[in-house]
Structures are given as C-alpha cells and as structure tokens.
Amino acid sequence: MSGRVRRRVQPWTVAWLAAVWVLLWGDVSWANVLAGVAVGLGVTLLFRMTPMDFRGRLHPWGLAVLVGRFLADLVRASAEVSWLALRPGFTPRGAVIEVQLRSHSDLYLTLTAELVSLVPGSLVVEANRLTGRLYLHVLDLAHSGGAAAVRRHVLAQESRVLRALASDEEQLAASVEGAR
Fold this sequence. Notes:
Elements: H1 11-25, H2 30-46, H3 60-86, E1 95-100, H4 106-118, E2 122-128, E3 133-138, H5 147-165, H6 168-173
Antiparallel strand pairs: 1-3, 2-3
C-alpha cells in the first residue's frame, strides 16, 4: 500500500457518535442526525482509533441488573450527597482509595470507572490500564463505610459489568461470583 494506511469506516462507532451528537443537541431532526453522521465519519476517518478487543456477549438479565442497580445507586447517592452538602457545620473527610480490579480488559475497566464516577460522592482520578487499578476520590470516607467498603462497592460494580457483558471465560478469569 506504499506506506499509506487505509482508513476504514467503523459503522457502529459512527452510529454511536451520531447518537451522542443528537443527544447533546437535544433535538431529533434530520439536520442533527446528518450532522452527527458527518461528525462520526470525520472522527473515525481523521483520528486513529485502536480497535477494541471484545470477546464478550450481551447478557440481558445481567444488563438489567447493572442498569437497575446503577439507577438505584444514583438516586441513593444523590440524596446522601445533598444531605452532606446541606448539613450545617459538617466537614466531610475525603480520601483517595486504590482499587485493584479483577478484569484485565480496557473495556471493562473503562465501563467500571465511568459508572463509579457517575454516581455522586466518588470520582475516578486515575485509571491505570497496565495494572488494572482505579484511584478514586471519595467525598466522605466515614459516611461511605471506610476504604474496605468503597473497594467492595467498586468490585461489585465491576462484577455487574462483567455479568452484563463479559464472556463466560472472562468471568471465570476474573473470579466473578455466579460465573459458569
């Protein structure tokens, strides 16, 4: 190919980027959909994206549990953070906690980190893909039950991600409870 790298259109990535574009604009119209497709094509053709190695499969029940638990955590944590913010004279004692994940997949590490960060009260400050470690800031360590409880919560979130998306072999390799 004379030193040139052929760029391929990645249809699923273009579709995903177009959907995000439409959601960001908040208006489903032909103009927004076409603009989203154009942006998706531009991003995938102009920027080199490393292909994601996904050997898993979608487990509908695991996905339902993941989404349901995430929504419940979101509501609960929002109420708790609101209470901490409105509590007079209270100063939260934050901490940075290291959590060693069990999976070695970049995809599952990223999904776990995003889901943990989206719940109020915790924020991933670093994700080390080589070691599979997350470092997260916790708003109030005592209110969260201590470092061990935070680690258990993050590992439980990773287990739900794996039960929703990972193959049986990946679940066994990560020692996920209930893996076949």
